[in-house]
Design goal:
The protein is of the alpha+beta class. Helix content is 25%, strand content 27%. It is built from eight helices and 15 strands. It has helices at 29-35, 62-70, 96-103, 112-115, 121-139, 215-227, 278-282, 298-309; strands at 40-45, 48-51, 59-61, 75-81, 84-90, 108-110, 150-153, 158-161, 169-170, 175-183, 188-193, 205-208, 236-244, 249-257, 272-277. Strands 1, 2, 3, 4, 5 and 6 form a six-stranded mixed sheet that branches. Strands 10, 11, 12, 13, 14 and 15 form a six-stranded mixed sheet that branches. A three-stranded antiparallel sheet has the order 7-8-9, with no helix packed on it. The longest helix has 19 residues, at 121-139.
């Protein structure tokens, strides 16, 4: 069997910055970075990025960023490239229209998935990195051990419980999820759809890894749970991975071969699932009757690479 491997990097991967982990313990790293004239800062509002009218991320200079940082808004040091330091500030508690007017009258806060396909991969990866970190901060304001308030440390990459009896450190976490293109060894693959997806949208199967199982076991389990097909882990082969900041996952992509058989669909997981031929996918109308996953997803990449292998 010819293994199907990734032909190019997935969107949201390839973050180009040097994260400078060895400097994050410097208490004044953020202040020092903002004080330099070459610092550039991303502004986020409720996980959305500020962009220009031509859908480009708007990097503000240090003068405006220093104002927001002084007001106590969550600030994260992202890293550095050859042109200077890069940071991000979360302004979710402020009025978004006023923010846009303060920075640029034509600017708007947009969801990352709307603009990422239009950006060079390294830039999209940087925005995804910033988004994931800010969501983590929003969801970990309280200690998971004692319930006390936490505070940001190490330039925004650790939260520490403020309770003197606890002091636990909490680090950003990424949830592993497997996503798999199931095919029959010929010219058909298996796609399903969930009720809350746009009309006609179909995609590959996926699910979170559970404690005590390997990635291959997670793939086999999810396939059985969702459509009732039993496959040996020997038929599960790694393809590629993708950072997925919606909100904080790493998508681990696989190709799996299964004997073509009738499906037993788990209605709690899927609205429908079926086998589709190569010709059906290549001639997808991309409308409310049938459509493939969005172009920024590893699901789309799995399908495209499988089609290219036939």
């Amino acid at each position: 069997m010819t293994f199907i491997r990734a032909t190019r990097p997935n969107i949201y991967s390839g973050m180009p910055l040097d994260r400078l982990d060895h400097r994050r313990s410097e208490e004044t790293l953020i202040e020092f970075s903002l004080a330099k004239g070459d610092a550039r800062v991303l502004l986020l509002w409720r996980s959305r990025h500020l962009v220009t009218v031509d859908q480009r991320p708007l990097w503000v200079d240090r003068r405006l960023a220093e104002k927001y940082f002084a007001e106590g808004h969550q600030t994260v040091f992202l890293g550095q490239d050859e042109t200077g330091a890069r940071l991000a500030i979360d302004l979710s508690i402020l009025d978004p229209d006023r923010l846009a007017q303060d920075v640029a009258p034509e600017a708007q806060f947009q969801d990352l998935r709307q603009i990422a396909p239009l950006l060079p991969d390294p830039e999209g990866a940087t925005l995804a990195y910033a988004r994931a970190l800010m969501i983590w901060h929003q969801r970990h304001r309280f200690c998971g051990l004692c319930g006390g308030l936490t505070i940001s440390r190490r330039a925004g990459h650790v939260r520490v419980c403020r309770s003197p009896d606890c002091g636990a450190q909490h680090f950003p976490r990424t949830d592993p999820a497997v996503i798999m293109l199931v095919h029959d060894g010929a010219d058909s693959c298996l796609l399903g759809r969930q009720k809350n997806w746009p009309a006609g949208r179909h995609s590959t199967l996926a699910g979170f890894v559970e404690p005590g199982e390997s990635l291959e076991e997670a793939v086999a389990r999810e396939i059985y749970e969702e459509v009732g097909l039993t496959i040996p882990v020997s038929e599960v082969h790694y393809h590629s991975s993708q950072p997925w900041p919606f909100p904080s996952s790493i998508m681990l992509g696989f190709i799996a071969r299964a004997e073509r058989a009738a499906l037993t669909i788990c209605e709690e997981e899927l609205d429908s699932a079926a086998w589709f031929t190569k010709d059906q996918l290549l001639n997808s109308p991309e409308d409310e009757t049938f459509g493939l996953p969005s172009g920024d997803s590893i699901a789309r990449r799995l399908i495209e690479d499988w089609l290219a292998s036939l």
